[in-house]
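Throughout our pipeline, every protein is held as a single compact record rather than as scattered files. The record that follows is passed on verbatim for readers who wish to inspect the format:
___
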Amino acid sequence: MRIRIKQALNSSGPQDDVLVKGWVRTKRQSKGFCFLEINDGSCIKNLQIIVDEGVPGYDNIDSINTGASVSICGHLVSSPGKGQAWEVKAIEVRLIGAADPETYPLQKKRHSDEFLRSIAHLRPRTNKYGAMNRIRSEMSFAVHKYFHDLGFNCIHTPILTGSDCEGAGEMFLVTALDLDKLCVEGKKVNFEQDFFGKRAHLTVSGQLNAENLACALGDVYTFGPTFRAENSNTPKHVAEFWMIEPEMAFADLADNMDLAQDMVKTMIAHVRQECPEDMELFARFVDKELESRLDNIIDNEFVRLLYTDAISILQKSGQKFEFPVEYGRDLQTEHERYLCEKYFKTPVILYNYPKEIKPFYMRVNDDGATVAAMDVLVPGVGELIGGSQREERLDFLESRIAESGLELDDYWWYIDLRRFGTVPHSGFGLGFERLLMLTTGVSNIRDVILFPRTPNALEF
């Protein structure tokens, strides 16, 4: 019976005739026997295998090196070794896939993150990135569990779109036209001849579609990939990333802020409970202050701060910022982190932004100058969540679309929601990779996603 290494290490007693499979982490050979440590990705710990000379397959032991995949049949027995309760006494060893010891790039030493990004196809085999991907898996499950338990419906929104949700124009164009025949200077492309008969893009958000479903099903969420053609090479930006986007009918901005705070706290608590060994790695080797910071997030209410008050605090701070602080400008990461790391020392929910710096779909407040927008700022990351109460009034929405320089006809279906049974509704987008950065203390988004897509980088 095949068992995963995590099961073997947590066994309640010895077992005969177990089958384990995995990749060799280390090998120590002595006269008459050999020690192998193997890992199958199920947990951070390795399982020690004792292979005596004469065991079937021992004649291949010289070809079994670090990185090789093996199948081991044997007996699970108590281990006299320090730090391990169980080991396997092999009765048969089979080499599945050899690894050349001269060229295999992962050796028993610490490798830099920069080097590991260059071999992203192999870095999940290291302790750090194995732990990261198990945490990512558990966090993904926690997202679905959280919304399921609250009665939200999971929906799947399109990846291809003809609408610009954010109105910023930073979208990847998708075409089936032969580009070699289109590169004629001064000649406009006729997108009526393209696959959809119009311009098509990769989506920057599933929000507009989620609003459609919220106005029929009540509370919904979508969790999937989004794409931004933003030429930004910072530690918190990638071109392809995953977004969690809940949308609630009959909900205002206060409801939105409550949900955002509760979700962040619940996600962190879940992963800490379910992945203690993997989380310990990040607390020990990545961020020494991780545990206390996560305790602070879980144990305290998030500060709720008006945008105007944030500007005042920043201007009076005496700090030297690279980017100027002015009313009517969006905050930069350095401003966001000052507020939540130095001034309040806890997450901050910033709300009621000037309407000029926010997208058309956000509800205009009674002052006519601000919109019911909110951003959740967290230590170590800055902005984690962006959301708003949506504009449910037909005349206001049409006016805002026109002000943004967008075509009303492109949003006819979205506008229809305000014609037929409109209701107040709100939602937000939570960057999944940024949530992982917050939870693990990893400072570069390229290290929490399997194959990061950034400007001039499309490997693997």
Summary: The longest strand covers residues 15-30. The first helix runs from residue 5 to 9.
